[in-house]
Amino acid sequence: DRIELQTEGFEKYKKLEELGKGRFGTVFRVEKDGQPFAGKVIKCIRAQDREKAKSEIEILTLVQGHEKLVQILAAYQLNREIVIITEL
């Protein structure tokens, strides 16, 4: 199933500790209803950043169901950030 960027709903997640940081974003442990997930926060200052984030969402959607890869669960468009929620 295709994952669409949502503008509402991320407020239901509680951001916990940082798990890692890279050139393209920062990954946090997040929690929703007591369940742990990973939330990758991607700063989208330039249009190019937004396109890269959307491309990552598309790729993660294409590999849904592969047992060796983390599964994407949701994606949120915030002000100048995109947050990708995956399994932890």
TrEMBL record:
Domain Protein kinase: 13-88
Positions of ATP binding: 40
Protein name: Protein kinase domain-containing protein
UniProt KW keywords: ATP-binding, Nucleotide-binding
Organism from which the protein derives: Allacma fusca
InterPro entries (alphabetical): Prot_kinase_dom (IPR000719), Protein_kinase_ATP_BS (IPR017441)
GO molecular function, one term: ATP binding
